[in-house]
């Protein structure tokens, strides 16, 4: 019986423990503080929002299930004795009608702002501008078409940014302070110009599952990135100039439309490149793959099946008992053959 014998080659995987960027999940509003305690305003003036104060007098304000933007406005006109908050969280409200205007938060400052699932359609330019010296963390998720912090550059203390919107196009963003940026663009397919990302301090960039169809034309060298995730997009190929880094530890290109290993330089020693689950990936070219292996980079290619052809030849060592490379997990689609020496014999005959 003729069948395609899939040989699973699992070789000495160097396990690398990477500190994956820990993004605060804006899930639950759960603070150990005292509800309504001084210096919060009287509880009944804030309903249905809640104010908490912790032992260090950090103030937390949470609003859930408000029915309109005017309800939110009403809360912020309550008699707040102090307007310097540690965290504001607004989620699961119905803000379908109208625009979230900047006057609502005028005079208030926040160190952290978390907003998600509020059915927002529009955010006014200049929102949270009274917090430019305070805001360190901003998380936003709603299908608005443009970036919520329009004057991003002026937020001097902002370190972490997690944004999930309906980008019409990749936004042009400038910041000298942001260390970690996660952008998810829902909706239409997006083209990213690397020149649109002017974030000098950036070490972690998550652009996975973001409908990206191309990235270019410049490279990422100007950022000192440690982690770049581009998995779950529609990327087919990269210009050889684009995937150039200064010292990248982790690059995730899995679940895209790649047909070959792209040209990648500037990986840190012991770095990892994930090209798993690229269904169109049938070959790993010597000239793009070998330099990575020479630089001690681990390649993860689970769910990739290389075709049984002459491109495979360089991957097998001369006596045909092993893969020349020892850090790839990959399938090879060769009829019948279950042994590398047999595959080697076939390739030696035809290639
Ligand atoms: C949200 O508000 C809009 C407009 O006020 C209303 O038509 C809609 O029914 C509301 N949706 C929910 C789920 O309450
Ligand atoms: C986005 O691009 C991919 C790949 O080119 C295509 O299959 C998909 O249909 C496109 N989606 C939209 C919404 O245009």
TrEMBL record:
It comes from Cherax quadricarinatus (Australian red claw crayfish). The keyword RNA-binding does not apply. Keywords: Leucine-rich repeat, Repeat, Signal. InterPro entries: Leu-rich_rpt, LRR_dom_sf, Wnt_signaling_inhibitor. Residues 1-28 form the signal peptide. It comes from the Eukaryota. GO terms for cellular component: membrane. This is Oplophorus-luciferin 2-monooxygenase non-catalytic subunit.
């Amino acid at each position: 019986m003729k069948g395609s014998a899939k040989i699973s080659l699992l070789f000495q995987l160097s396990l690398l423990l990477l500190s994956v960027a820990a993004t605060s999940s804006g899930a639950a509003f759960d603070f150990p503080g005292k509800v309504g305690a001084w210096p919060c305003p009287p509880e009944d003036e804030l309903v249905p929002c809640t104010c908490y104060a912790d032992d260090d007098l950090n103030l937390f304000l949470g609003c859930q299930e408000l029915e309109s933007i005017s309800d939110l406005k009403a809360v912020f006109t309550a008699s707040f004795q102090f307007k310097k908050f540690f965290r504001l969280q607004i989620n699961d409200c119905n803000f379908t009608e109208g625009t979230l205007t900047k006057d609502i938060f005028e005079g208030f400052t926040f160190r952290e702002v978390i907003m998600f699932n509020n059915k927002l359609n529009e955010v006014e330019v200049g929102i949270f501008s009274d917090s430019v010296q305070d805001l360190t963390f901003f998380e936003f998720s709603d299908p608005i078409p443009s970036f919520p912090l329009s004057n991003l550059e002026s937020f001097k203390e902002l370190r972490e940014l997690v944004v999930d919107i309906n980008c019409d196009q990749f936004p042009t963003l400038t910041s000298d302070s942001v260390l970690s940026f996660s952008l998810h663009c829902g909706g239409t397919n997006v083209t990213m110009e690397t020149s649109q990302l002017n974030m000098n301090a950036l070490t972690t960039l998550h652009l996975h599952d973001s409908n990206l169809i191309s990235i270019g034309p410049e490279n990422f060298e100007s950022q000192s990135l440690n982690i770049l995730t581009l998995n779950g997009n529609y990327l087919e190929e990269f210009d050889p100039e684009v995937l150039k880094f200064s010292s990248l530890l982790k690059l995730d290109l899995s679940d895209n439309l790649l047909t070959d290993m792209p040209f990648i330089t500037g990986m840190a020693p012991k770095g990892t490149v994930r090209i798993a689950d690229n269904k169109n990936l049938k070959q790993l070219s010597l000239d793009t793959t070998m330099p990575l292996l020479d630089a001690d980079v681990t390649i993860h290619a689970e769910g990739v099946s290389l075709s049984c052809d002459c491109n495979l030849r360089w991957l097998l060592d001369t006596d045909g008992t092993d893969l020349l490379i020892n850090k790839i997990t990959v399938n090879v689609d060769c009829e019948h053959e279950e042994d590398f020496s047999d595959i080697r014999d076939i390739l030696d005959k035809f290639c």
